[in-house]
Amino acid sequence: MLGLSSYKYQSKYTIIMREDKQLLIITHLSQLVTLVTGFGSLLIPLVLWITQKERVYEMDENGKVILNFQISLIIYAILCVPLILLFGLGLLGFLVIGIIGIVFPILNAIKVSNGQTPHYPLSFNFIS
């Protein structure tokens, strides 16, 4: 039995996933790239999710949560545009969306680093 690996009972089609909390944290914090570049809060997590969801443990769940949150924020921002004409409520909406878009990625990155499940409020479930 010399030379046998510890995975000798797994078939050649079994996908072995690695645990990478740092990549999960980076995926959550990558939403904040919008503060620097003005865009990319949806694009970077999407690319990380598509390329790593089958390789990194819990990336699929975290990626879906992040993408649902970002799509929801985009929808809320679109809804705020006509509300600007209604007593300026849209401006207040943009302010709230901005605060939520900064605070919750940071909080959920901390949750992921502690091994907890992330949760984003006011998210629609587009990707399940």
Instruction: Write down the secondary-structure element order.
Output: HHHHH
Average pLDDT over all residues: 88
Shape: elongated
Q: How far from one another are the termini? A: 44 Å
Radius of gyration: 19 Å
Q: Tell me the helix content.
A: 55-70%
Strand percentage: under 5%
Question: How many strand segments?
Answer: 0
How many domains? 1
The parts where pLDDT drops under 50 for at least 5 residues are 1-10
Number of helices: 5
Reported for the largest beta sheet, the result is: none
Q: Helix/strand-derived class?
A: mainly alpha
Description:
This protein has helices spanning 21-29, 34-37, 43-52, 59-83, 89-113. With 128 residues, the protein is an all-alpha fold. The protein has one domain (21-113). Helix 1 runs parallel beside helix 4 and helix 3 (43-52) packs antiparallel against helix 4. The longest helix is centred in the middle third of the chain and has 25 residues, at 59-83. The protein is elongated. It starts with 20 loop residues before the first helix and ends in a 15-residue tail after the last helix. The relative contact order is 0.15.
Summary?
By secondary structure, this protein is mainly α. It has five helices and no strands. The N terminus is likely disordered.
What does the secondary structure layout of this molecule look like, with pairings?
Elements: H1 21-29, H2 34-37, H3 43-52, H4 59-83, H5 89-113
Helix pairs in contact: 1-4, 1-5, 3-4, 4-5
